[in-house]
Amino acid sequence: MMKLALLASTIAAAAAFAPAQTGRAATAVSETKADLEGLAKKLNPILGFYDPLNLAEAEFWGQSNEATIGYLRHSEIKHGRIAMFAFVGYIVHANGIKFPWAMQMDGTPFPDANGNPPALWDAVSDDAKWQIFGLIAFLEFWSELSTPNHKHYMRGGKPGDYPDFVSGEEGIPHPVPFNLYDPFRLSKNMSEEKKESRLRAEINNGRAAMLGIFGFLSAQCAEGSVPLLNGVVPAYDGEPMAPFVTNYLGQPFGL
């Protein structure tokens, strides 16, 4: 999951369906346990609200319950987006679909790994991986910004909303023509009801994708763990949660 998620998260926030906040002050959103219970009924009327660990009543890091709920909501939406990209990416690579041009400046092509997605990530050079990690770090940094036009999700902001790329003194020091969410402004006239409906669909799809990608990896790493995938996905004997084949942190300790 780590390998696919790291690659997927370079574009994960582009799947956001939360409305952008450009051109107006952000509106504070503070959700409570009652709000989660109402949302759960809309997301899955059969299961409803399910919180065996009572996380909806927690106060993480000494923050308020509302801030904690904002964190939990944002985390689920974000991980769901990454899982959706990972699930689709897994299927694409498992079928040997790749770009026809070279992956690196020295002419190295995109790896194939015979339709084994985790092994394909192992075949990517460390230099290429560091470039991916660098982009991820920037996207993470930008997603945590709190500005007059974008409140942090733990401070009354909307969970799942990715801030626009702003140029100028308080933003990026050069023009950025496109935002990560809705780069062509296709949703600018979309009603709030439609946006909320799409966000609920995104949450449900993200939950399904999280189960799906872990199902693929479990079937590859533990034979027979997912009977429906027996003989469908190839075995993998590597470490699916390790970003590098070489254990750089463990080398000094003989690991």
Outline:
This protein is an all-alpha fold and 255 residues long. The protein has helices at residues 2-8, 33-43, 65-94, 117-123, 126-143, 192-221.
Topology:
Layout: H1 2-8, H2 33-43, H3 65-94, H4 117-123, H5 126-143, H6 192-221
Helix pairs in contact: 1-3, 3-6
How is this structure best described in words?
- Helix content is 40%, strand content 0%.
- With 255 residues, the protein is mainly alpha-helical.
- The longest helix is centred in the first third of the chain and has 30 residues, at 65-94.
- It is globular, with a radius of gyration of 20 Å.
- Residues 6-27 have low confidence and may be disordered.
Arithmetic mean of pLDDT: 85
Q: Catalogue the unreliable spans.
A: 6-27
Shape: globular
Strand content is: under 5%
Q: Would you list the SSEs in sequence order as H and E?
A: HHHHHH
Structural class: mainly alpha
Q: Figure out the total of helices.
A: 6
Distance between the first and last residues' Cα: 22 Å
Largest sheet, strands/sense/barrel: none
Q: Whole-number radius of gyration?
A: 20 Å
Give the strand tally. 0
- Name the helicity range: 40-55%
Keywords:
255 residues, mainly alpha, 6 helices, globular
